[in-house]
Amino acid sequence: MDDYPLLNLFWTMLWFFLWVMWFFLLFKVITDIFRDHSLHGWGKAGWLILVLLVPFIGVFIYVIARGRSMQERDAKQIKENEAAFRSYVQQAAGSGGGGGSADELSKLSALKDKGDISQEEFDRAKARILA
Fold first, then answer.
1. What is the helix (H) or strand (E) element at residue 10, kind and residue range?
2. pLDDT tens digits along 95-124
3. Per-residue DSSP letter, 131
């Protein structure tokens, strides 16, 4: 370890970090090319060929030319994921102040036991709740 000075260690770490960030950017651009619905087959193929054959120049040209729309697609994807997550949480937690489908089934069973609804009505309502 004496023959490898501390400054060289820092330079090695810096270059390694830049190398990892470069691959992150490269993969981000490639996924954005395929995620963009405004580009059609030949446009996607052209950008992909440019990015893969001349990676440094291709990625920088892509980021300069399409960076703003790249950010807009990311923001749109984040909003869609958030909406899907909120919808899932609301569905899993049950809507309103009730306890979800288990609470509705217990109320339905109580109505059937009291004789307020028939067995057919109970089966239809149960199928609707569980669907």
1. helix 6-35
2. 555 556 778 888 888 888 888 888 888 888
3. -
Q: What is the 3-state secondary structure (H, E, C) of 54-112?
A: CHHHHHHHHHHHHHHHHHHHHHHHHHHHHHHHHHHHHHHHCCCCCCCHHHHHHHHHHHH
Q: What is the pTM of this model?
A: 0.58
Residue type at position 33: I
Residue 47 CA to chain centroid, in angstroms?
Answer: 23
Confidence of residue 93 (pLDDT cuts 50, 70, 90): confident
Q: What is the pLDDT of residue 24?
A: 94
Cα separation, 108 vs 102, in Å, equals 10
- Is the four-CA dihedral 117, 121, 126, 128 of positive or negative sign? negative
Cα–Cα distance list, 3 to 6, 12, 72, 96 (Å): 10, 14, 49, 69
